[in-house]
Each structure stands twice: as structure tokens, then as C-alpha cells.
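Chapter summary example.
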Amino acid sequence: MHKYREEIAKIIANQANENSAKTLQSDRNLVTKHTLGDGREVVIKAFKIPNLINKIAYRYFRKSKAKRSFEYASKLKALGVGTPEPIEYIENFNWLGLRTSYYISSFVAYDLTYRELTTDFEIPDHEDILRAFTRFTFYLHQKDINFLDHSPGNTLINRRDGSYDFYLVDLNRMEFQPMSFETRIKNFAKLTIHKSMIETMSDEYAKCSGESYDTIFNLMWNFTQEFQNKYHRKRRLKNKILFWRKKKS
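The structure predicted for these 249 residues follows.
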């Protein structure tokens, strides 16, 4: 994959003037799609410049998000788990520590993400996709893969001849180790607020695992509510801080 290194480096250096780039995400990190000279479509994820502590940490004590993304993607591919093909990662350092970093992968065209399942219940094969997604998550757990960012936008879904292909993205937070039963069920906590979806996923996970539906549903629903409560507490606190800052200014 190093044959693309020079071309990708030029794209990154001239990204502000890159007319052919398509922005896929631009909030915390910048994610753009580009077409290389041979027609290959790639995605470049430019990670947010780290704060002072992380600049130092990513140079001397921890792997950068870009490096982790590349290594985790490579490990997922080796385990037979869908993810866009990893191409390379780039890190730029100065005397203080990590300055900028990028993760580059192939672009995967997809039909929808899990997020659409949470907003459009009229999708004809909604339940089939949801059950297949649950089986896919069970497969991850059987392979000792704990995808810590298992959230609505991080699974791409393709329909294929009556079945479904799933691709994980945003990979820098993962653990590869055996999980307890509760940890497995907690892995569903960020996915949806809809009780009907929790019921369906609980039913399918019970079929896969042989565990009790009631036990799985009660755990999954409680973990989901805990996550939502924590999320909204953070949002309220953040809004209060912003309000007082505006009031003082």
C-alpha cells in the first residue's frame, strides 16, 4: 500500500485547495473522500490537533489515534470482520510531541448506517437488518472484540443477495480480550433509545447466546438508560457553562 504514500502526502499538504475532495465529516475530526490517480477512492481522517498533555503522551507513552485506527483495522481484517481496507497512517511530530495525524483507508460505498434504523422504521427490511446486526455484534464478542464506540454512525451496512455486510469505522477505541456477559450486553448501550429495537436485539442475542431473553433485555435496557442519563447530564452541564461564559462576556 506504500505506493500511494507520496500521492496521499501531496493531497494532505494541499487539502485546502483540493477541489475534488468530498467532506464526509467536519465536527471533531475532518473526514474527506478523495480519488487517487488510478481511480481508487480513499478516505482521509485528519484527527483533531491534540492538547498539550496528549501531544506529549502520543509521542512517548501512548499510540496515536491514527496508529491505533490502522492497527485495529488490520487486526479486524485478520479476524474476518468487515472494515474499510486500511492503507496507512501518518504522524507529524515536533520537538514537543504529536502535531498532526491522519488515518487513510479505502472508501466503502454503503446503503445505510445503523443510524437510519433509529430514525426510519419504514425501512422494508428494518427488522431483518437489526437482527443481522445483532448477530454481527455477537460474532464480534465471540472473537473477543469490544468495539467501545459501538454507536449509530459507526457501522456501515450493505445489502447483498438477501444478507447483509457490516463495516466498522471510527476504530481508535477498541479492546481485544474476553468479555464478561454484562460487558457484552453493555456494548449495545449507545445504539438506540427505542425500546422496540432493544427488544428485538435482546431476542436475537438470546437466540445466539442461549441466555435468557428477560435477563438480556433487562440488562440492555438498564445500560441504555444509564448511558442516556449520563449523556444528557453532560449536555446540560456543557450548556450551563456556555451560558455563563456568554453572560460574562
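To summarize the output: The two ends are 51 Å apart (CA to CA).
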